[in-house]
Amino acid sequence: MTINVTRSSMPDFDEYQAEIKDLWQSHWLTNNGSKHRELEQQLLEYLDVPALCLFTNGHLALENVLSALNLGGEVITTPFTFISTSNAIVRNGLSPVFCDINPTDYTIDVNKIEALITEKTSAIVPVHVYGNICDVAAIAEIADKYDLKVIYDAAHAFGVTTNANGIGQYGDASMFSFHATKVFNTIEGGAISCSDKTLRDKLEILKNFGLSADDAPYVGTNGKMNEFQAAMGLCNLRHVDAEIAKRKRVAERYNEQLENVPGIRISKGQPGVKSNYSYYPVLFDHYHKNRDEVFEELKLNGINARKYFYPLISDFSAYSNKHKSEVTPVARYIADRVLTLPMYASLGADEVDRICEIIKQ
Ligand SMILES: *Cc1c(COP(=O)(O)O)cnc(C)c1O
């Protein structure tokens, strides 16, 4: 039996069917329908954020919030992320400036941000990685000092809290992804959380072509979440706490098997942070086999791990003419050695054991 790196969460078919049934009465399929409104309310509470704007996917959410904040010039981010992060920056006519990551939790190295700030810098887009969070306090201090906006890519951080605060409370805005492969999914979907209600209102207009009543104050796009996506979200949200609890057990099983293996480095979590166990990253650092050999060995046994994030964004051909991955040596080191192992709620203890056996043999 093949084990994939992830397996999308789905409610029972009957539950989804019951949830979408009234759409056959209302014939209201998109444009802020009742499922959309209900999901938004429930997520405001679940994510513990002041304001939320739902989108058809996380990427468009990020593109639109960068546009809404009227940024210019340069934006500091990291190359150790999904390509969506820097694509959203470039597609807004902004230049990404890549900052290195720290080798402990793989988020932006806050000690290296200030050296990259120029007169052209308008924002920082840090990325919460694998369910680990950035140093939000240090980033807020730098942003205050230089008057920069902070927009978090929180695609990996659904439901994560720090000192019991929802992670979406930090910075000027945070983007969550509800893609099928994420901890919580609406098939495709995403959202922006923010504390500024006028920013939220602007996003509502931007995602609907820039239209507001009889006017179009902005040149917007189409980023609306439809009712079938929202219905999937309403169902999946009922089960998400139970799923995260199961993911935690999977992570603990991996930890037991791998924590004392020389040359294998696992993530231990962060103090005060409630993780969502979205990924299980393992670093092969001076192990007797390298990352690619382990990847191939797992594949031969029907187990699909993922080189994530690899390659670095700065090494993709769309970026490599303007960017050099040499400027972020830690990110490069980690990208060459990291593997995310299969991680999803229904992954069995016996399957985790089999995966670890293959890695250790
Ligand atoms: C998934 C992901 C995105 C994009 O979200 P979509 O909902 O797939 O558009 C952006 N950044 C990171 C880090 C992601 O993992």
Find the count of extended strands (DSSP E, 2+ residues). Answer: 13
Largest sheet features: 7 strands, mixed
Number of helices: 12
What ligands does this structure carry?
pyridoxal-5'-phosphate
Mean pLDDT: 97
Supply the helix-strand structural class.
Answer: alpha/beta
Radius of gyration: 21 Å
What would you call the shape? globular
Question: What key phrases describe this protein's structure?
Answer:
alpha/beta; globular; 7-stranded mixed sheet; 361 residues; binds pyridoxal-5'-phosphate
Walkthrough of the structure:
The strands form three sheets. The protein has a seven-stranded mixed β-sheet with strand order 1-9-8-5-4-2-3, with helices on both faces. A three-stranded antiparallel β-sheet has the order 7-6-11, with no helix packed on it. The chain has helices at residues 13-20, 23-26, 34-47, 58-68, 84-90, 136-146, 197-206, 227-258, 291-300, 317-320, 329-337, 349-360, and strands at 51-55, 74-77, 95-98, 121-125, 149-153, 161-162, 165-166, 173-177, 190-194, 264-266, 273-274, 280-284, 338-341. The protein is α/β, with parallel strands linked by helices and 361 residues long. It has twelve helices and 13 strands. It starts with 12 loop residues before the first helix and ends with a helix. Residues 57-59, 81-82, 84-85, 127, 153, 155-156, 177, 179, 190 line the site of pyridoxal-5'-phosphate.
